[in-house]
Design goal:
mainly beta; 2 helices; five-stranded antiparallel sheet; 179 residues; 9 strands
């Protein structure tokens, strides 16, 4: 049987093809995600817990001793329907990978969480992650509606797991109060 011959000149086109691609397409299928859950109380305040999933493929890892590390800034913004910012937090994170395969995997992410108490209204949750090494930024946003009266079916009923009697250390978890 005949096998096609490999032509090394084809490799010359690879760098040119990569230069023309936007930075996000080099992330190999990883995309930033933001999720929120609402927990209603009888006091008229709704606890909104959110999580930003940051795939390792969106960050640039560099060797640091025995491991690989990537640094990024994470910003979370919650805005009212009119665009008024009611919550804004930003901090730097460091992600660690044990080897190159872990750093390049689209199945590995770091999770950053936030929590606020929100009155009834329409909001938009936004997350922006900026890789400190490359300067690339990635953004995602989702609408968030907090009804004036709790719905008949809570977000908790749609969860795939509920843990009872979870005790938090005093002062370890303080949601931000808006409104």
């Amino acid at each position: 049987s005949e096998r096609p011959m490999f032509d090394p000149r084809r490799l010359l086109w690879l760098p040119l093809a990569l230069i023309g691609l936007p930075a996000t397409s080099l992330a190999q299928g990883g995309s930033l995600a933001i999720e929120t859950n609402r927990f209603y109380s009888e006091q008229g305040r709704t606890l909104v817990e959110g999580a930003v999933a940051i795939p390792y493929t969106l960050m640039t890892f560099q060797r640091d001793g025995e491991t690989l590390r990537a640094r990024a800034n994470v910003e979370v913004i919650v805005e009212k329907a009119g665009g008024e910012s009611v919550y804004n937090t930003s901090h730097e994170i460091t992600a660690e990978a044990f080897n190159e395969a872990m750093a390049a995997s689209d199945r590995v992410s770091t999770i950053e969480t936030f929590a606020i108490y929100a009155p009834a209204g329409e909001y938009t949750t936004k997350a922006r992650v900026t890789d400190r090494t490359s300067g690339r930024s990635f953004e995602v946003s989702n609408p968030l509606i907090v009804p004036a009266t709790p719905p008949l079916i809570s977000d908790v009923l749609m969860a795939n797991q509920v843990r009872k009697d979870v005790r938090l250390q005093e002062g370890a978890y303080l949601p931000y109060l808006i409104g």
